[in-house]
Amino acid sequence: MTCDGAGDYSPPLVFSNLPAGTVELVLSMVDEDKPGPLIHWVEWMIPPDVGGLAEHTKPEAAREALSDLGEATYNGPCPPRGETHHYRFTLLALAKPLSLPYGAPARSVLAAAKPSTTATATFVATYRRTT
Hints:
This protein is 6% helix and 35% strand.
């Protein structure tokens, strides 16, 4: 789940209480302590009926955007040693599906999602590298 340890895998997440009419979900993880802020991960075309994501798993239909780190995959927390960074996870419920190519830039996916977003859920996790 971070750049340290056994694997840099996406975390398990649970989705519930989606608004009626949701046709697609978009999920992002952003490092709020980096300039920009730095987008680590955006996944879209998540079916609203999946109920969440298992660790290191994406639904078959889902797509991953090209992050600010230059990869179309999950890039876990990896702040400089001794610093604590805040990572904002945001789930967007969309009323209309996105029509973007696989590997589209993360910022383009988030901008395209904005007009049809009907609900947003957010939480912030922190991570500190000590060694």
